[in-house]
Give the backbone structure.
Amino acid sequence: MGDSTTTDGHVRAETTVCASVPADRAHLLADMLGRLAALNVDELLAIDYLVAKLEAGRRKHGPLELDTDSRDWFEEAAQESADREHYKAFAAIQKKRRAG
């Protein structure tokens, strides 16, 4: 696994598994456990939050199977981005009103 830096200084992480080849689950879990062990508490909490989101999605939609899932992920992301912008606007308006 390697990381590369973008022109704006952000680190772009690369996964250890090729996206086109099904991963050996046991090998992937062992690799992830080793990588997780190096993280601090805040980093682990961030991962825990994302796993909880995956679990909620699994309860709502069933297991994620990218080979058979017909959702348009770019459209899903666009919808989520629009929602996020609405939420930020709502929060700003609410904060301003509460401040008086």
